[in-house]
Amino acid sequence: MSTQPQLSLKKLYSGKVRDLYEIDAQRMLMVASDRLSAFDVILEQPIPDKGKILTEISNFWFDKLANIIPNHFTGDQVADVISAQELPLVEGRAVVAKRLKPVAVEAIVRGYLVGSGWKEYQRSGTVCGIQLPAGLQEAQKLPEPIFTPSTKAEVGDHDENISFAQCAAIIGEDLANRVRDASIALYKAAVEYAATRGIIIADTKFEFGLDADGTLTLMDEVLTPDSSRFWPADSYQVGTNPPSFDKQFVRDWLENSGWDKESPAPAIPDDVAQKTADKYREALLRLTQ
Predict the structure, then answer these.
(1) pLDDT at residue 9 above 70?
(2) What are the chain's domains?
(3) Which of 158, 166, 256, 268 could bridge to 162 as Cys pair (CB 3.0-4.6 Å)?
(4) Can you give the three-state secondary structure of the chain, one letter per residue?
């Protein structure tokens, strides 16, 4: 089970889930580990084959959505940039990606009222400052998808929801508009396809970067069970939070464990880790087969 492959390439960065290695000035190797982050904490137990499953899902979506916006792929194969001896360490969980300047916000699109959005709506009738119609229920589909950016926290810190005005103040109004429009277009296209596979995409997070020419480019991961909330359409019911194909399964276990989210996270039982992996794999199979 891969958690931290030791490669001869220079490591650029270790995130909650991904490790980045330098190939040259234009390219890097992005490796998806089996680590799981919940409530902005990296859990001690890896999820079996999670990195491979997420890489396969991301690659599927990058290809399907390439007509909407450029993505970080260079066209190079992993086997072209690392030795045959090291290839087994990352096979199936790595891609060769462009080195981009990251856009300094998380681009979140919500199509349903759930999670932190539902909690805010109950208090104020808004989500990230966006006024919504009165009388909506938990998990209800919104009249239109909404762009609800958040800050991009360092590892170990918490992302914070921000308004569009705050987003524009951080990255500039023109770029904020481009990120919002691209995010909503990507979400709508993905929702339409996923519906044909019996999956509702309640919300998702996109990551963008800029290339040397300033071209907005989709990067990192896309529409995986880590970055999105996937619901099985056949069990969806307004007013209740449906079971999902994502790490919500682990999040629910942690919520019920009595953990205070400040002290070290409790150990995840093997059966919870395996059931989480099974949910990720089911999402992959539903989407791609």
Answers:
(1) yes
(2) 11-99 (3.30.200.20), 102-245 (3.30.470.20)
(3) 166
(4) CCCCCCCCCCEEEECCCEEEEECCCCEEEEEECCCCEECCEECCCCCCCHHHHHHHHHHHHHHHCCCCCCECECCCCHHHCCCCCCHHHHCCCEEEEECCEECCEEEEEEEECCCHHHHHHHHHCEECCEECCCCCCCCCEEEEEEECCEECCCCCCCCCECCHHHHHHHHCHHHHHHHHHHHHHHHHHHHHHHHCCCEEEEEEEEEEEECCCCCEEEECCCCCCCCEEEEEHHHCCCCCCCCCCCCHHHHHHHHHCCCCCCCCCCCCCHHHHHHHHHHHHHHHHHHHC
